[in-house]
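Q: what does this look like with zinc ion bound?
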Amino acid sequence: MDRLVERAADALTAPELADVVDLVAWPDGDGAVRVANSAGRARLRPGEPDELIDGASPVADQNPMAFLPYSDECADPAPPNARNAYPHAGDRLLSLFGDGGRSPNLVVVHTAAHYFPEAGGHVGEHGSLDVIQSRAPLLLSGPGVRATGWLDDYARLRDIGPTLAWLAGAGPDDATGRLLDAAGAPVEGDVLDRLVGRGAGWVVGVLWDGAHCGDLLHLVGRGELPAVERLLERGCALRGGAVAEFPSVTLTNHTSILTGVGPGRHGILGNVFYDRASELAVNANDATTWHRSAEWLRPGVATVFEQVARARPGVLTACVNEPVDRGSGYSTMAVIRATGSADGATSLAQALADPTGSPYVGERAHLADRYYAWATQVDDAGVDQMLSLWHSPGAAPALTWWSNSVTDAGHHAGGPRSTIARDSLRDADRRLGAFLDHLDRVGVADEVLVVLTADHGFEGADPACRGGWDEALRSAGVPYRDEGPGFVYLGEGMAR
Ligand SMILES: [Zn+2]
């Protein structure tokens, strides 16, 4: 296997591929990971200084606060490796290689500018190890938040679930200060008690899928997202946001947020991954499979809903429009599972209201984009569920998680800062505003802790930056399968 990996890595780091291959990585024994690209190689072992093997390190800059202030990001969009940054590169890559049954033998990280429509890529894309695709917004608002306004700080997405569960009553382990998973092992995410303390009557987590951190905060600063601004008046926003796990894709990070562990522990390695035991490629991030996501969770994992149920048996939790729902008292996906629908949320959308009648859509022309139209329907149904769950505060869930999709649709369609991306943020803001208005109406706005985040960032691809690495791998003569693309599984059994 080592020889196959070396051959694949040599082929993938050829200078001709440098426009599309940012770097490749593979496990290097002893808790270490090797990274390589056409400019050099390094060995990363979390907790130790990186060891440069030759040339320049592919992850020389690991600053989580890179490209701040936001004007720096705008001035250098989708930067090449030498000007890019890769926060927590070692432990994020190492987690990807932590699942013996599912981890690829080698991973290829696309360059920020790579455009690959033939393999499912969009004008706006995410999935990279780099800082901008990995940077999700993080705002905390309401009782117990320790600071107000804009903070020069960052957290990690895996910290959010443990923090929500702790705020809702789950206790950290005295010895480690961390929540314990179902097998009694400490989770990897920190409780963010430097930012917030307990005391809220209710806890609400809001996820805007793919909402771009820098542009979201920029629009708030210009007064264009009034509901988020209302949150900020009662709390804080981290300029560095929250760093996603790798890859910076949807289901991997929804799962890390809601379990407090990286992909190597929870098992949802990517939106698509290969499972050696079943010899199947699993596409876990799809409207047709979302409602089945718990099937792929590894043993020992505990969701935030399970954490709260363990600490406070019988208390209501709710999970709106979110695939990672195991243990929640109310769950949209449970409703879908109960219908026995084979294609999940796809056919559900046919039962939902016509998106052209949505009161939250600012620009109806965007509904010509099928994903935007579907997300509008689903997100509108999300508001309805939120208002229904919160009909009376006495019956409201102690912990509510509310996932929204239109922001991902807007950013895929146009990339960050595009009209459609910004309008998707404005639509999501109107839905959030409807919920905040409701809290005002029922008189509990001062008692509800709200966290707003996303699952990843976004960068705009360069339509001229085309091509792939299939030919290079074929010429190297290595038997392989490539899921994603980017998860490379090697060996005789993998040849397709
Ligand atoms: Zn996403």
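DSSP finds 15 helices and 22 strands in the chain. The mean pLDDT is 96.
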